[in-house]
Each structure stands twice: as structure tokens, then as C-alpha cells.
Amino acid sequence: MSIQIFGMPVSRGVAIGRAVLVASSRVDVAHYFVAADRIDAEIDRLRQARDSVALELESLKRELPSEAPHELSALLDVHLMLLHDESLTGATKVWVRERHYNAEWALSAQLEVLARQFDEMDDLYLRERKADVEQVVERLLRELAGSSGSALSGTAAERRAVQPARNGAGEDPLVLVANDVAPADMMQFKRSVFTGFVTDVGGRTSHTAIVARSMDIPAVVGAREASRIIRQDDWVVIDGDAGVVVINPSAIVLEEYRFRQRQSDLERARLNRLRHTPAVTLDGQAVELLANIELPGDAQGVLDAGAVGVGLFRSEFLFMNRAGDLPDEEEQFEAYRDAVVALMGLPVTIRTVDIGADKPLERMSAQDLRHEHGLNPALGLRAIRWSLAEPGMFRQQLRAILRASAFGKVRILIPMVAQLGEIKLILEALARARQQLDDAGRPFGKVEIGAMIEVPAAAMLIDRFLRHFDFVSIGTNDLIQYTLAIDRADEAVSHLYDPWHPAVLQLLHQTIACANAMNKGVSVCGEMAGDPAFTELLLAMGLRSFSMHPARVPAIKQRVLRSDTRPLGQQLPAVLAADRPAEAWKLALGARGSA
Ligand code: PEP
Ligand code: MG
User: Fold this and answer.
1) What would the pLDDT profile of 396-433 be if each residue is shown by its tens digit?
2) pTM to 2 decimals?
3) How remote is the C-alpha of 295 from its chain's centroid?
4) Domains present along the chain, CATH in parentheses
5) Which of 9, 25, 76, 215 lies 20 to 30 angstroms, CA to CA, from 404?
6) Which position among 31, 207, 509, 549 bears the catalytic label?
């Protein structure tokens, strides 16, 4: 029977595919695809883990003191039996062989299947055996984590998600379903086969949602019960425009969504024809459309989308999924240089690490962090605060970025600056990094330094901040979070996350106007920049530089090409003064006949 559930639309389009349930990130297992020629080795890992656990259980049983209750030995027998049961290890191998899942992922997928079967049993005794299966799987996962070539001990390259030649379930497309996905895990899925994804939790601008948007696949988050209701291999439709998830749709519903899919493919193809058209408004204002990237490998997508540079390289993703082994100067330099070279002279704005909040180094989601620490990490040691607390590491990153500037146009961007006192420390660190490179005889180019304006304190003192920086980039995701005191990763308050809030618009306008008056560069790199609902408003505020996911560039360009900034600017004061600016702006656009 077809079921509909509702969540928040975070990435547009329609995806139709078979569900792949990924266990909650609280179970710390890596999820990645194994290349075809590594399948046998992966199954060997499983076999070895099973044999080791069997030995361990047998020896535990042997060593049981004679006075131990009989139940204990019986329990170990049950575990041994489960370990050799086809429904566990046999079926797990099928996930590896047919779906190319890594061993840990295959085990947790099979656990999910078995757990549901146990939940549905009428017999209480049998239902309670679920805990035994969980314990056996846990032992196996622990064994795998300790084994060579495991997800936790492998190199970043080995762990990278590999796209299998075929996905095994015929050629059916796959969609990812999870309670929550940590940003670090999302990165592993970035080059994978998933055509859509849905999670139970998460906010519109959580980093998980941002990575999904950067993958340009339809996504719905905050669909509360999704991972409980959807089963492995169910057919699922993800409507990333409306925030609807349809499970096992009827033939008629499926056909309707397939029609919409074809329509949006056509629309995409039409917009892509604007790729080489310069972004100039009707009244001749040139607008810079830049792209946000997470990894150097994203650079080609920037050029393909027709963006004229990178406005935000979120460098922290280079630091994730490494089990604490942070990239050294050389590795960082190579990554930045690769992006700079790929951009062929176009500017690359590299943001220093923004670790913390909903982007911890470990594979943890914001939800896990809240549960484990009971703190709001968004207000903690995050971004530049983290870098200034680790000055050696900060200078190492600055040196790596400076060295990359010998290969093209590079700009440094500092996240989350809030204190005037931080500026001095940042500039000193930069001067010292330059000096160290000079002393070592290493070349570097001229690099501009900018600050992200994403804390209200910085927006309010924008003129003072601008005295020290060459440019600013407004991070609206955080600016909204901090202005309205709403955790951007928490779906419980997502209805209050309002880019149209008059206070947010006032801070945005003030920042853009001040930067323009002081003749300093100003850009917006938060999600508002890639949302066509705000393009004309931002143009009216005087913004001429937008940075967004590459996939959003064509739609925003179309909006720019159809805009005339003169009448827009005249409407602005009334909209800024309105209690409900969204409505006022819609009315203003309607009055001009361009809504
Ligand atoms: C922002 O806060 O708007 C931003 C672009 O940075 P991030 O989303 O990575 O926090
Ligand atoms: Mg931010």
C-alpha cells in the first residue's frame, strides 16, 4: 500500500528509487561502495571477522566457571548459532556482492532487516532474540574495526565512496534513507550512486542538507518517521520540491512523478544553455556568480555550471573522515593547488576550517552531539575560534593556502569572526605564515583576506571590520541562526528559521551597503544566494556577487538576466520597514508585473 510522509524540501527535483536504509550514525560504521575487484577481499574480511568472533565465543564458553548458570552457556550457544546462520552472515555477503556495500554497511543493513522481522514476531521469547542478533553484529563490527583494511584504519583514498559498475538490484536507482547522516558520512556518499535522500531529522540549512544540495539530488529532511516506516528495497519517491516522500507508490502516482522528472530534466537542459551567457541585469549591471565547493574534485562542476570562480571552498571537509589524522601542510597544499589549477585563473576563495557545530571531525551528527554532550556546539569552539586555539595548525593551513596562490588567484576567507580582538590575531598569523614561507624560500602570490559575516556582532560593526579586511562574504545560514537564536540543524525549530525576518534583512542590507560605500568586495555565500526567491531582493540591496552550489548557478543567472535593479532599489526601503517583508516584496514585484 502506498504511504505518504512529509518533511522539509531541501534539494529540488524528484527522485524515484529503491530504499537503502543506512543505520543511524550513532552506530559508528562507515558506508562506502567497494570497487568490483575488491568484492572478494571484502567478503574475506567478513569471513575472517566471523571466524574470529566464533573463536572468541567458543573460548568464552570453555572458560565459563563450572558454577556459572546454565543460561550463560546456552546464550553463548545462541550467539554462535546466529553467527553461522545464513540469515545473518549469508545475507550480509549478498549485500556486499550485489550492492557493493562495504562489510560494515552490509552488516548494519542486514541487522535492520532482521530487527524488523523480530519486531513483528508474536512470540515474546523470539521477539527478544533481537537483542542477541544486535550483540552478535556489534561483536562483528568491533572485530572489523580492528581488522586491517577496515573503514576506520584505511586511508582517505581507500575509504572514498566508489561507484560500482552496476548496483546489483538490476539497474534500479537507489535512494538513501536514514535517521540522520553526519556531514562526514554525506561526503562519502557524494560520488555514490544515490539519486535522492531522506532523513528523519535535520534542518533546511544543516550541513547534511547543504552537502545534499551540492550533490544536486532531490532531498527531504525532517521526515520524522521515514527510517522507521520505509524498509530496505521499498520503492520510494522523494519529492524535493514539496517535501513529500511516497513509499511504494501506485502505478498512477509513479507515472505522475516520472512525468515531473522528465519536465524538470527539460527545464534543467533549457537553463544549462545559459552557461556561457554573462550574468548582466536588464539595466546593464554585471553580476558575479560564484560557486561553493567542498572538495577539489568539485572544481570541474564549477566550470561546467558557468560560474566565474569559487566564492567558498569549505576546506573543513578535507579534515573529516580521517580518524583524527589531520591533513598536513603538504596534503592541504596539494588539494588547494588542484582546485586553483582546475579553475584556470578564475578566483578561488578558500575558507579556513570551520570545524565544530554540526561539522565535527568525527562521524557524528548534530543530533549525536547534542545527545552526547548536552551542549549547543554552534555556540562553542567552532571555526576561527578553533583555529585560534590551535595556532600551529592555523598557520599550517595559511601556509598551504598561500603556497597554492603561486598557481592562480586565491583569496582567504575566515569563518565566524565576531570579536575585534580576533582580527589582530588572524592578521598576525597570516604575517607569520608569509614570513615562514619567505624564510623557507617557498613562492606564494598576492592573496586577499576576507571575513565571513555570519555573527550579528560582526554585521553590526561592519565598518570597523572592513577596515582590516579586503572583502567580506555574508554567511546567511549562520547569520540567520545566530540572529534568531535558532539551531539550523534542529528540525524542531526549523519553522522559525526565517530569512525574511526584518532583523535579518536589516543586517544584510547594512553589510552590503557599508561594503559598497567603502569600496570593498561583498558577496553572499549562504543558501540565500542560490535561492531565486531572494535574487532580486539582494540585487536591490546592492549585491553584485553571489556564491552558491554549482547546480544553482543557471537558475540564478536566469533571474539576474530578467532583473532591472532601478525599480527594485526604489521598492527596497518600504520592504525593509515592513513587518512582513516577504509579503511586501511579493506585492512590490507584482506591482511591477515581474513576480
Ligand atoms: C553560512 O553560514 O552561510 C555559510 C556559508 O557557511 P556554512 O554553511 O558552511 O556554515
Ligand atoms: Mg557558516
Assistant:
1) 999 999 999 999 999 999 999 999 999 999 999 999 99
2) 0.79
3) 11
4) 3-24+153-252 (3.50.30.10), 36-144 (1.10.274.10), 277-594 (3.20.20.60)
5) 215
6) 207
